[in-house]
Amino acid sequence: MKGLILAAGRGSRLLPVSATRPKHTVNVAGVPIIVRAVRALREAGAEDIGIVTSSSSETELRDVTLGSGHLTFIRQPEALGTGHAVLCAREFLEGQDTLLYLGDNLFEDSLRPVRAALGEADAVIGVKQVPDPQLFGVAVVEGGLLRGLVEKPSQPAGNLAACGVFAFRPGVLDAVAALEPSVRGEIEFPQALLSVIAAGGRVRAVEFGGFWSDAGTPGDLLRANAHYLSQLTPCMDGTLENSELSGLVVVEPGARVQNSRVTGPVWIGPHAVLRDSEVGPYTSVGRHALLSHTRIQGSMVDDFARVHAPTRLLERSIIGRHAVVGAPSDVGLQLVIGDRSVARL
Question: What does the alpha-carbon distance between residue 206 and residue 137 come to, in Å, rounded to a whole number?
């Protein structure tokens, strides 16, 4: 079975974080989203993995996946939808069964049940119960079989959201190739499943029970970061100087914690420096980042960021790579700023 990750989109809902890089490269608890996708596919048994990229995203996706084993990068020349992206990979798929992963999704559960369900079906769709189905593509499922799909219905027929993972046999590609563009002008892969059903085929639905996020908005990203931080194994591989750690804390090699208090769950990346600060809970601090005289919680600080906020509490904030934050006053503050931004508040 081949693995295929769709990662050509930049993610407009995640702006400004995604303004200067693909959203799939954003770190969640210290691991890029795209790397988590690769790991999930490999754990499910898909060793030969392709990644569909745009011309602007390929270089950075290659960089962040170094060390993830052999990967094949496939260019999608235009943003014409998920179905079009799959067709761009047709030569790579070589007529084999495929485990398809929409690259901005994050799963706690293994993808193995999706692969296994393909043994008795033409295709498989992953679904998840959600409290707000009107925000998602809603799957209509009867007896474990997909019967319909409705995109963001105003009156949902159920609460099962299509959650960004599929498996399909080679013949499904013919159904994708036969699709007409949607009202958005895109070829939508999930619509091919309805064509399979209409032709008498079987599409199984596999329900996920654990954590799932499409990491599509800053709030989604922060919730995913908090979840994965709580799954870490504590370790202290850096340097601790006159500081206090409590709870689940990971201090990576080369990191220094000086005159600070850290309340887990917290991840402190390699060569990061915390100085005279209070950090956590539910906070990640990227590689080579510097926090000085800062109080921060429930937030994400990316690689090489610089934060000096002596009197304000930073919370529910996302601070991009190489960003600089200075906050000298004493009022609570929330920030979502992109890479290489400068905020002086």
Answer: 15
